[in-house]
Amino acid sequence: MFLTIVSGTRGQGKTTLVRQYVADAVAAGRSVGGVVSPAVFEHGERAGYDLLDLRSGRQRPLARVVTSPAETPTIGTFRFDEAALAAGNAAIVSAVQDGLDVIAIDELGPLELEGKGWAPALAFALQACRTEQELVVAVRASLADKLPVRFPSSLWEHAKRLSPAANPRS
C-alpha cells in the first residue's frame, strides 16, 4: 500500500489538492473512493463542511458551526452529523474492501485523534489496504506528527508528502 499525506495550514487548500489528485487519478484510469470535506461558506464566512462521497458523488452536510446556545459542539465550534460520519466511514471501508486504486480521507484532525470521525475507517484502511492501493489523507501540518502515534503503521515513515500552494483556498 502507498500512503500519500497532504498537509498544510487551515484554509490553505488541502481539500482542493486532494480533489485534484483524485481527478488526476480518474483521468489516468484509476478507480477512486473515500471522502473529501469541502468547506461551506455563508455570507463570506465558513459555516461548516459537507461530506462528498467520491465514489457515489453524493454530497451531504457533515459539520456546521454551532450558532445556538442549545447546541453542543462535537469539537471546536462545530457540530458533526453522526449519520454523515457513519456514511463517510462506510464509504472509506467499502473503497478499501472493493479494491479501489485510490482511497481519500479528508480531513484527519482533532476528532480522529480522539478516536472519532474517520478514525475507525483510517485504522481499517491502514491494516487492510492491498499492496497496489493508495491511501491519500489530508491533515493539518500541526497535527501530522500525531497521526503515527495514534494510528501506528510503518507506512507513515515511507509516505509521499504533498502540500498545497501557499495561496489560501477551501
Question: Can you give me a brief rundown of this structure?
Answer:
The protein is an alpha/beta fold and 170 residues long. It has helices at residues 14-27, 82-97, 110-113, 119-128, 147-150; strands spanning 2-8, 32-36, 39-42, 45-53, 59-65, 78-80, 102-108, 134-140, 160-162.
Write the layout of secondary structure elements.
Elements: E1 2-8, H1 14-27, E2 32-36, E3 39-42, E4 45-53, E5 59-65, E6 78-80, H2 82-97, E7 102-108, H3 110-113, H4 119-128, E8 134-140, H5 147-150, E9 160-162
Parallel strand pairs: 1-8, 1-9, 2-7, 7-8
Antiparallel strand pairs: 2-4, 3-4, 4-5, 5-6
Helix pairs in contact: 2-4
Features:
5 helices, nine-stranded mixed beta sheet, 170 residues, alpha/beta, Rossmann fold
Query: What is the alpha-carbon Rg in Å?
Result: 15 Å
Give the CATH level 1 class of the domain at 2-37 and 82-162: Alpha Beta
> Which oligomerization state do the chains in this entry correspond to?
single chain
Helix-strand category: alpha/beta
Helix count, DSSP H or I runs of 4 or more residues: 5
Mean pLDDT: 94
Question: Can you tell me the residue ranges where pLDDT is under 50 for at least 5 consecutive residues?
Answer: none
Q: How many extended strands?
A: 9
CATH architecture of the domain at 2-37 and 82-162: 3-Layer(aba) Sandwich
What share of the residues lie within helices? 25-40%
Output the helix-strand order. EHEEEEEHEHHEHE
